[in-house]
Design goal:
The complex is a heterodimer of chains A (297) and B (680). Chain A is α+β, with helices and mostly antiparallel strands and 297 residues long. Chain A is built from 8 helices and 11 strands. In chain A, the strands form 2 sheets. In chain A, strands 1, 2, 3, 4, 5, 6, 7, 8 and 9 form a 9-stranded mixed β-sheet that branches. Chain A has a two-stranded antiparallel sheet with strand order 10-11. In chain A, a hairpin with a 2-residue loop joins strand 7 and strand 8. In chain A, helix 7 runs antiparallel to helix 8. In chain B, strands 1, 2, 3, 8, 9, 10 and 11 form a 7-stranded mixed β-sheet that branches. In chain B, strands 14-16-17-15 form a 4-stranded antiparallel β-sheet, sandwiched between helices. Chain B has a two-stranded antiparallel ribbon with strand order 4-5. In chain B, helix 20 packs across helix 23. Chain B is flat, with a radius of gyration of 36 Å. The chains are: A alpha+beta (297), B alpha+beta (680). At the A-B interface, strand 4, strand 6 and strand 7 of A face strand 6, strand 17 and helix 8 of B.
Chain lengths: 297, 680
């Protein structure tokens, strides 16, 4: 296997999925905790229109930060997200082929699909699927979405989420994420060690709690205004901002057990309304991405 | 005799669902073909069954077919006969309608299979269903292909629209190509060549053997862990096992942590030495023949080391703070919205434990220290990460802080017993803290109106009550002589709600149900009616006393004497139904029979009192039985329901005096008898 780099993996995965008919989307320019939250997943899995997409998504999880000291845990990591709608019947084989495209000879590895059902209460979403274990190490979350925004999905989308840092670490036999080669002569640590420390410090110790609660209220209220104005993408942007503010408050230790339930509910309500509005607006547009013969009048 | 086999190729089905699915399939297929041999198995992504000794066709049978009324015309009759290929000679006598008997040829087994197999397979209800692609169907996983072969020929069926064939595929990575099959043996053989072992039991045996060999090679044995073993067979199509090592420095971590990480998170099996200590080697499943390049050993070790590194980090961080110093942090950890935080709970547990200690006359400092510290581990990093280890971590840290055995073992054990099969805390102090914690939780939730309903018991209150009952039933050196009623009172007092009779009664009622259930299913083997009879005489002061009384009733009910005990008790109960008093005015006694009965009742009553004090219930019941002849004489000669109220009531009081003796043991009228069993 040629020298494994972080960007090499990304390029290989993008090429693989592009060659199989996926559009390569751009990462979302708002803080999110996972590739699933990008409208290219959360909104597009709703409704009947087909969709095939792949993209890198920076994923921020303030509570997971470790000041850059832990070799595996990061406050921000990168996911490679693939969504295929409707889910093709040979999706598992496609996935294995993607691993082969990264240079893996699967006959000398142990590769298994172990039950792991994904759920996101803030999005009113859940699915059924597996974590993919490569030699005992989880490298991918594989999910058939059943519901999003509280709406049953038809057709069903398959989501494949690769953990890029982990995969790179593992393939290049590095024992710390910061030691992996990013590309262009830079290691992951060269690029990210400082900001990992700083975002941890900020999220755990410095973030202004008062400000964040105020921001939550303001973002929520602006999201509602957008929903009333029937603008789903802006509404959803503001919903995501609420979600990130909550994650920061949580890491900061500023959310009590009682409060947590209430806040999650508020974000969920927004997400559910965005989901419904998305389906409504697409319907009004006549579900334009459906093949001509399937479109209703 | 014919054979049929079937394979459904899907995608990895959760390991824990397979056994139940096999049972359902086996049952349903046996129902369709009662005389056949039914074999059901699966791999993670295939459901397979094989039917042997099938008849080639059903038996022919005769049936009656009803036709037009006899009054209908010739044309109707002719049409009916023609339709059923019958003649006038086939018409049966009698009735308002024409009837003929018809011989129906048995259907071919192939026909029956084609009709029933799809139904049986499609109707399997899995714990979690999913939809895929267009979403037309719901099942456990998407359907890929179907193999259906009857007598070495393809028998066409379809499952959720997927048409069957005679082709399947081999191991996903080692031999993924198509495989055509003719018979079940051919199928099993070809698939094994393609690195798929179809039979789950065979996979399990092979893996067990491989595990033993790998462990023995380093002078160890695999941990006996039934849960993990039973899962392994459904994690791979090829029964591979590998051995790997984690960093030996992690052996310094508490064993409970090491084992939990390996078992629960990774489904790995630790390897132990002959003296039961852990080695730094473990076993893991491998869906491959061999780990040729050592990739799987590397990967498994990598993950395990990473988790242990985390655990070590937590452990080191945790040890910087003493358990005692963690108590203030418990104010930030909520127990329940209306029941306060864990520091408040701790104080209540301490108060209850203190009350119990005073009540049973043990001035145990260890108990109170343990009660004081038992929840401190909830704010450690280790417990936050490994919540299942709560209590155990507290105990381990207390041990590391050099608290005496009586303290750390009590903390360690205080969540026990967690279920009916679980062991009890190993010390009295542990048992007391466990009782205090559980009764505090019960009293708290009942006070806020959160009792379990039907099938919902989100706070595991039934298990908490059961745990209390299990502890109180124990009679070895850890026996705790306190009643359920007493415990409830201690708990309500600790909640500052000592006079809440509503909750007290609710809790007693709740315990009543749990006790009945436990005694019925426990090792005592008591019958429900014996339990009910004994419980009528009370149980809230002592559960061991209750058990002694149930035991006595159980012994006595099979003796010839029992009928007379029962009959006496019944007669007395009927006549004195509305009468409370048992105070007899000797001066009002008139008849000789009355007087003799009264004397007997007094003397025997005293004896029975002594026996009851000594819990010699069998003899007490026998003494009661001995009064039967005198009681009978009384009933023969004395009329109770006389007009004179003073006389009537006195006689009723006399009967009550006689009857009360046994009522303190149990209400024997609740015991169900088959009188025929008692005839000499």
């Amino acid at each position: 296997m040629a020298r494994i780099t972080f960007q090499g993996l990304i390029l290989a995965l993008q090429k693989f999925w592009a060659d199989r008919g996926c559009m390569i989307e751009m990462p979302l320019d708002i803080e999110v905790g996972a590739g699933t939250m990008h409208p290219a997943t959360f909104l597009r899995v709703l409704g009947p229109e087909p969709w095939n997409v792949a993209y890198v998504q920076p994923s921020r999880r303030p509570a997971d930060g470790r000041y850059g000291d832990n070799p595996f845990r990061l406050g921000k990591h990168y996911q490679f997200q693939v969504v295929l709608k409707p889910s093709p019947i040979d999706i598992q084989d496609l996935y294995l082929d993607s691993l082969r495209a990264l240079g893996l000879d699967l006959t000398v590895h142990d590769i298994r699909f172990e039950e792991d059902n994904w759920e996101a209460p803030t999005l009113g979403a859940w699915g059924v699927g597996w974590q993919v274990l490569l030699d005992g190490m989880e490298i991918t979350q594989f999910t058939y979405f059943q519901q999003a925004g509280g709406i049953d999905l038809s057709p069903v989308s398959a989501e494949i989420t690769y953990g890029l840092e982990r995969l790179t670490m593992f393939l290049s036999r590095k024992s710390s994420v910061f030691a992996i080669e990013w590309g262009g002569g830079f290691k992951y640590g060269d690029v990210r060690k400082q900001d990992e420390y700083e975002i941890s410090k900020y999220d755990f110790e410095v973030a202004n709690i008062d400000l964040h609660w105020k921001l939550f209220d303001q973002y929520e209220s602006e999201a509602r205004r957008c929903l009333e104005a029937k603008l789903v993408f802006p509404a959803y942007d503001w919903t995501l901002k609420c979600s990130h503010v909550f994650n920061t408050l949580d890491a900061r230790g500023a959310v009590s057990v009682t409060e947590r339930v209430g806040v999650i509910k508020r974000v969920r309500d927004l997400a559910v309304q965005c989901a419904q509005l998305f389906v409504d607006t697409r319907r009004e547009l006549g579900f334009p991405l459906l093949p001509a013969q399937e479109r209703t009048a | 005799m014919a054979e049929y086999f079937f394979e459904l190729l899907t995608e990895e089905i959760p390991a824990w669902m397979h056994d139940a699915a096999h049972a359902t399939l086996r049952q349903q297929l046996s129902d369709v073909f009662p005389s056949a041999e039914v074999f059901v198995t699966s791999t993670p992504r295939r459901i397979v069954f094989f039917l042997k000794n099938l008849p080639l066709r059903e038996e022919d049978r005769e049936e009656e077919v009803k036709g037009p009324p006899r009054t209908a015309g010739e044309k109707a009759l002719a049409g009916f006969l023609k339709k059923n290929n019958a003649t006038a000679a086939d018409i049966l006598e009698g009735g308002d309608y024409i009837r003929i008997r018809r011989r129906v040829a048995g259907r071919g087994t192939d026909q029956i299979l084609q009709e029933r197999v799809p139904r049986v397979v499609e109707s399997l209800r899995w714990p979690k269903m999913m939809r895929w692609s267009g979403g037309e169907h719901a099942y456990i996983r998407p359907i890929h292909s179907v193999v259906s072969v009857f007598e070495q020929q393809h028998l066409p069926i379809a499952i959720f629209g997927v048409a069957s064939g005679v082709t399947t595929v081999g191991h996903r990575t080692l031999a993924p190509g198509p495989i055509t099959v003719t018979s079940y043996n051919d199928y099993v053989t070809k698939l094994e060549l393609a690195r798929v072992v179809i039979d789950a039991t065979r996979r399990r045996h092979v893996m067990a053997e491989r595990a033993r060999i790998l462990a023995n090679a380093i002078q160890g044995t695999p941990s006996l862990d039934v849960t993990i073993w039973s899962q392994w067979q459904y994690l791979t199509e090829y029964p591979g096992v590998l051995r790997a090592e984690f960093g030996p420095e992690y052996l310094a971590l508490p064993e409970e942590v090491l084992v939990t990480v390996m078992r629960v998170h990774q489904k790995q099996l630790p390897i132990r030495r002959a003296d039961e200590t852990l080695t730094n080697s473990f076993l893991a499943v491998l869906d491959n023949e061999a780990d040729r390049d050592g990739n799987a050993a590397y990967g498994n070790a990598f993950v395990t080391n990473a988790r242990f590194a985390d655990a070590k980090f937590f452990h080191d961080t945790d040890r910087r703070t003493r358990l005692e110093d963690r108590l203030p942090q418990l104010t930030h950890l909520q127990f329940q919205e209306k029941l306060g935080n864990y520091l408040e709970k701790t104080k209540r547990i301490e108060a209850i434990a203190r009350s119990v200690c005073t009540h049973i006359g043990c001035g145990d400092e260890d108990t109170l220290t343990a009660a004081h510290l038992c929840k401190a581990d909830l704010v450690t990093e280790m417990v936050k990460e490994f919540t299942d280890l709560q209590g155990q971590i507290g105990g381990i840290y207390a041990r590391e802080e050099e608290y005496p055995d009586g303290v750390w073992q009590a903390i360690y054990d205080h969540y026990l017993p967690a279920n009916i099969e679980d062991r009890l805390p190993r010390t009295v102090s542990g048992a007391i803290v466990s009782l205090a914690d559980k009764i505090d939780t019960l009293a708290g939730f009942f006070r806020i109106g959160a009792r379990p309903t039907g099938s919902r018991d989100p706070f595991a209150l039934r298990r908490a009550a059961q745990g209390i009952v299990q502890i109180l039933l124990n009679r070895d050196t850890r026996q705790i002589r306190v009643g359920v009623a007493q415990l409830i009172d201690f708990a309500l007092a600790a909640h500052g709600d000592a006079t809440n009779t509503q909750v007290r009664n609710d809790l007693l009622g709740f315990f009543d149900e749990r006790i009945r259930t436990l005694l019925e299913i426990s090792q005592y083997g008591f019958a429900y009616d014996e339990i009910a009879a004994a419980m009528e005489a009370g149980w809230a002061a002592s559960l061991t006393d209750l058990v002694d009384r149930v035991t006595a009733l159980k012994r006595v009910r099979d003796t010839p004497n029992f009928l007379s005990i029962l009959d006496s008790a019944k007669r007395i109960a009927n006549i004195t139904a509305d009468h409370e008093s048992s105070r007899v005015d000797a001066k009002k006694l008139q008849d000789e029979a009355e007087k003799r009965l009264n004397e007997l009742a007094s003397s025997v009553g005293e004896q029975i009192d002594e026996m009851i004090t000594e819990r010699d219930y069998v003899r007490a019941l026998e003494s009661f039985a001995a009064m039967a002849p005198e009681l009978e004489t009384f009933f023969d000669n004395v009329m109770v329901m006389v007009d004179d109220p003073a006389l009537r009531n006195n006689r009723k009081s006399l009967l009550r005096k006689v009857g009360d003796a046994v009522l303190r043991i149990g209400d024997v009228t609740k015991i169900v008898v088959d009188r025929s069993e008692y005839r000499a």
